[in-house]
Specification:
Layout lengths: L4 E5 H14 L4 E5 L1 H6 L2 H8 L5 E4 L2 H9 L6 E3 L10 H5 L2 E5 L2 H9 L9 E4 L11 H13 L7 E4 L12 H15 L6 E5 L3 H6 L7 E2 L30 E13 L4 E2 L5 E2 L4 E6 L16 E4 L2 E6 L7 E4 L11 E5 L6 H8 L3 H6 L6 E5 L1
Parallel strand pairs: 1-18, 2-3, 2-9, 3-4, 4-5, 5-6, 6-7, 7-8
Antiparallel strand pairs: 1-10, 10-13, 10-17, 11-12, 13-16, 14-15, 14-17, 15-16
This protein binds pyridoxal-5'-phosphate (PLP).
């Protein structure tokens, strides 16, 4: 019954790309389209930005292959590289660039017969996140092993990732940049060094010295702030000059009278303090809307904010329209994505990050592209 819609504004997407070009005119852009482009539809986003941006970044080999199969021509980088079960020959067959972050990957390349200079790689330095990448004291030996591999194209690109770029007062980011630069300076033959890339959305917006050759916007590309939104920071991506790409919406199924003192929904967790009118809305956790949302979280109906009441169910939620409301079945309901209702705010109400809120939208919510 749900008619949940993920509406995607192509012009907002293009606006955000232009913001990054102005913020960092000397850098190339790697648009991150992993996790189905944060639920914005990987194939459509990549088709729109193909040869507009300089690279695409994905998390899995399958995502890269799919982009090639639909005809994407820009360079594509596997941010986590190929996995144990992947065949590195597919990287060459589909013209995919890979991050190299661990010894198992180097060994697999050594054991695979690939033609000379056939593979573009990004050597990943663990500059302090301690997730993927070579530790600073290991880097020179492993970098040399990559240099010695015939199949690896030279120069070799260098990539790293920040753990805390969203913490504006943290010394960690400066420490990571210093570690990155120490590695760069430690390479005797500088002609072996290709492009440098460190900054994702947080680095792009808060740490200009990290921009380097290639910036990697993910969440900010979609017009959402990477910084947490809370009582002490109410800045959204709009305050940073970005435009929200997604509007998440549905419609009213029916409007009903509700009497003072009556409770409603599963568990009857909300009780009306006055006679009122309720909207039954076609949206639930089966579409990806969080079930555990704070009481009184608003939705937008006919240009005003009205509260969700009771428990969000799989396919429906209830909204208190107020006693004098004139809203009717079929009217549009917006859950996030307009200026009054940024996704950052709903994330704060849900106890989740905006990243999680976006990526957990389900297949039942249908993508639609406008302007
Ligand atoms: C996901 C990811 C990004 C994008 O991160 P945002 O915070 O969404 O901008 C960039 N680089 C790497 C390596 C990633 O995994």
């Amino acid at each position: 019954m749900s008619i949940a819609t993920i509406e995607i504004s192509i012009s907002a997407l293009q606006h955000n790309v232009n913001v990054f070009r102005k913020l960092s005119p000397a850098s190339q852009i790697m648009a991150i389209v992993k996790a189905n482009a944060y639920s914005h539809g990987k194939n459509a986003i990549a088709s729109t930005l193909d040869r507009v941006v300089d690279y695409f970044g994905v998390a899995r080999l399958e995502e890269g292959i799919e982009l090639r199969k639909i005809g994407i021509e820009s360079p594509i980088v596997l941010l986590e590289g190929f996995f144990r079960h992947d065949d590195p020959r597919q990287l060459v067959d589909y013209n995919l660039q890979t991050v190299i972050h661990c010894i198992e990957q180097i060994e697999k390349l050594q054991a695979t017969d690939l033609s000379a200079n056939s593979l573009d790689v990004w050597f990943k330095l663990d500059s302090g996140m301690h997730r993927l990448g070579f530790r600073p004291e290991q880097t020179n030996a492993y970098f040399q092993q990559l240099v010695d591999l015939d199949c690896v194209k030279k120069p070799i690109n260098i990539i790293s990732h920040f753990s805390s770029a969203d913490e504006l007062n943290s010394a960690q980011t400066l420490h990571q940049i210093a570690t990155f630069d120490a590695f760069i300076n430690s390479i005797a033959d500088q002609s072996l060094l290709g492009k440098q890339s460190i900054a994702a959305s947080g680095g792009i917006l808060a740490w200009p010295m990290s921009h380097r050759d290639v910036i990697r916007p993910g969440i900010a590309l979609y017009g959402v702030s990477p910084f947490s939104y809370n009582e002490s920071n109410k800045a959204t991506a709009a305050d940073l000059g970005l435009k929200s790409v997604m509007t998440f919406k549905s419609e009213i199924i029916t409007v009903r009278e509700h009497k003072k003192g009556e409770s409603l929904g599963y568990g009857l967790i909300w009780q009306a303090e006055r006679d009122t009118r309720l909207a039954v809305v076609a949206m639930g956790y089966g579409d990806g809307y969080p079930r555990d949302i704070l009481a009184n979280t608003p939705v937008s109906i006919n240009h005003r904010l009205v509260p969700i009441v009771g428990r969000v169910a799989m396919d429906m939620m209830l909204v208190d329209l107020g006693p004098t409301a004139t809203d009717k079945a079929g009217d549009e309901v917006i859950f996030w994505g307009n200026d009054a209702l940024p996704v950052e705010k709903i994330a704060d109400h849900s106890g989740m990050s905006a990243y999680e809120l976006l990526t957990r939208l389900t297949e039942r919510a249908k993508l639609r592209y406008v302007d």
